[in-house]
Design goal:
266 residues; alpha/beta; Rossmann fold; two-stranded antiparallel sheet
Length: 266
């Protein structure tokens, strides 16, 4: 028996990455919904294919700004999904754009970053509250992670517990309630995913004073470190999902990835 996690993917280039294998090995089945292909967002309680109820929710990153409802018309529905997940204590993880959407949905503020793009291998530091957190307690006090964002959570949602910070953008990780987390960085991003982000944007990065080749080399060299650092976070999230849902609530399929109604499968 496995547990079922709903994944909201905002673009083909920002998929589950390392998390796909790590969550599958932890007994999770990830159902990926791709609204950019026209797939409808399901409700958390079922009724829209793929049918729930769900044992967990992960909202991935992407290029849109969290407030760009006109250019990205599924964002209001995604924010509503996140708000409902927080209200019902569904185990939830928002990554980069996902963390920003959750902040907006729950009363926080997201704005263009004043320190410019944060791209490449970045250092984050855990705050004291992380010591007792189900996801962050086992992580090192300082760690490096893949970053790729320009917008930022400038005011966390009311009641948010800050878990990690960094020099340029202080809100790197937060928890809402007992089972919802937002991370500004990309613990899921494989080396290949990061290279796919920088390759088409080298000129734009250069305009911001960033050398794509140097950023690529640093992330490639840190590949083993990144896997060792962030696999425990994925496994800890799976443990929260199991603990919240109880044994075997999610069906009989083997752990892995199940596509939504669209045709694009990673």
């Amino acid at each position: 028996m496995t547990h079922r996690i709903l994944i909201v993917e905002h673009e083909a280039e920002a998929g589950l990455g390392y998390f796909a294998g790590w969550l599958a090995e932890a007994g999770m089945t990830c159902h990926v919904v791709r609204p950019y292909l026209g797939e409808p967002l399901p409700s958390l309680d079922g009724g829209t294919a793929p049918a729930g109820p769900w044992d967990g929710l992960i909202v991935l990153g992407g290029a849109p700004s969290a407030w760009d409802d006109e250019g990205t018309p599924w964002l209001p529905g995604t924010r509503a999904l996140l708000r409902r997940a927080v209200e019902t204590s569904l185990p939830t993880l928002g990554i980069c754009l996902g963390a920003q959407l959750m902040a907006l949905a729950c009363g926080g503020r997201v704005e263009p970053g004043t320190a410019g793009p944060e791209v490449g291998l970045g250092a984050i530091s855990l705050l004291p509250a992380a010591a007792g957190d189900p996801l962050f307690a086992a992580l090192p006090l300082t760690a490096r992670a893949v970053q790729y964002h320009q917008d930022a959570v400038t005011v966390p949602p009311p009641g948010a517990v800050l878990l990690a910070t960094a020099a340029d953008y202080p809100t790197q990780a937060y928890r809402l309630g007992e089972r919802a987390w937002g991370v500004q960085f990309h613990p899921e991003a494989s080396v290949e995913i990061f290279l796919s982000w920088t390759a088409p944007n080298a000129d734009r990065l250069a305009e911001d004073g960033l050398d794509a080749a140097r950023l690529d080399a640093e992330v490639v060299a840190a590949g083993e470190e990144l896997r060792a650092t962030w696999r425990p976070l994925a496994e800890a999230f799976a443990a929260v999902v199991r603990g919240a849902a109880g044994p075997g609530t999610g069906g009989t399929e083997a752990g892995g990835i199940v596509a939504g109604s669209g045709t694009h499968v990673h």
